[in-house]
Amino acid sequence: MLELNFSNMMGEVIGQKGIAERQIEGIKTTVSNIDKRIKSKERPELAFIDLLEQDTSEIKKTASFIRDNFENFIILGIGGSALGPRAITEALSPFHNLDKKPRVFIYDNVDPGTLDRMLSLTDLKKTAVNVITKSGSTAETMSSFMVLWDRMNKAGSDALKSFIATTDPEKGNLRKIANEKGLKALSIPSGVGGRYSVLSPVGLLLAEVIGVSADEMLQGARDIHQRCSDAEVWKNPAYLFGVLLYIMEREEKRTMNVMVPYADGLKPLAEWFCQLWAESLGKLGTGLTPYPSLGTTDQHSQLQLWMEGPEDKVVIFIKVDDYGVDIKIPKVFQDMDGLNYLGGHTMSELIKAEQESTELALAKIKRPNMAIGIPKIDAYHMGQLFHFFEMATAFTGFLYGINPFNQPGVEEGKNFTYGMMGKKGFEAKKEEVEKAREKKMCWRV
Ligand code: PA5
After folding, report:
1. What is the pLDDT of residues 404-413, one digit of tens each?
2. Structural domains of the chain sorted by starting position, each given as residue range(s) with its CATH number in brackets
3. N or C: at which end does the chain have fewer Cβ atoms within 10 angstroms?
4. Cβ(422)–Cβ(415) under 8 Å?
5. What's the 78 CA to ligand 1 centre distance in angstroms?
């Protein structure tokens, strides 16, 4: 079971810069009110909690069809429609494409170089394409879908067999196309937003395609949900996570949250978390800035900043007890003093020692940090991590008094792009871009 160890956030351990128990006690009434709002599903977007009870038979049937008929599986999506699938693949089937079929490609941009390279590596007649977009209209996803649709048809592959649309049950252009063309389609329940959708067909279809049990992932999520729905803040790891980071930001001006898993396979999970945390909380001039990192790798890149840089961070470790395998460091070069201490130990001993040492080094100079521990990286615990972070994020949004489910700040950029790309109704935005370009010409070297 996932565990949150927040000792190094507390005043008793790190002194004045830490949190006092009374500060958490002081927020308890607010927590209990938010708990009621979550339980009453005050907002329709809290439907991500209902995903834990979904029927996965259609997902499993579709995945088995893909596994039996295709050599390549391409996902087209962006944001929440790509980060979750990537986190699942990297955590549960690392280096997947080197020895497993179908090979998986997650294309989440509109960089023509990458798309061209991906297409040159895949025989489209042997390729299934999963187009994932909740809104059914995202420019990046739909444009790569249009390219793939055209290329597939020209390559003579059977589009009806090869495309799977994952989208809103009713709304949007992708749903319309799927209905009109008779494409295979899976639904993201209408209330569930992109960044809260990893435990819907968005992530679960890919999981099943690569041989990971969707049911085990959901079981993990259900089990952690029991704890993440406890109204008592001291017993609820998701609420406590939010409360601690909120107090650190409000009282200590620690606005940065560094997410550092000590496992290569969990780096994309840290990136998935960063989207969830940033897009959900960064509103109305408030929010917390997440950034993804990796232990031990970034000890040789970022740690100096965390130790001696501005006191604006909380470092959050993700620790793994059992790496599933271990490798003994051989007793070679025994006559070298600077090396012979390593021989006889294992790689997992070393990575765990480095994590613990970094935690302690930070705590010793009173820099707050906390650790999320999981026994091992498997479907069950990935389900726990995903759901824990989603509950924590929704809760923290309510704590800040903002809506953790929308993203109004991304609209203006989209509108300018629509204007430049000639979308009807956005002519004024095009003019605005052109005027701005003139100003940009004045200040150049
Ligand atoms: O969380 C969100 O809603 C967004 O980040 C979306 O995931 C992203 O914009 C992609 O949207 P869509 O799935 O509608 O293509």
Report:
1. 999 999 989 9
2. 3-38+218-399 (3.40.50.10490), 49-214 (3.40.50.10490)
3. C
4. no
5. 7
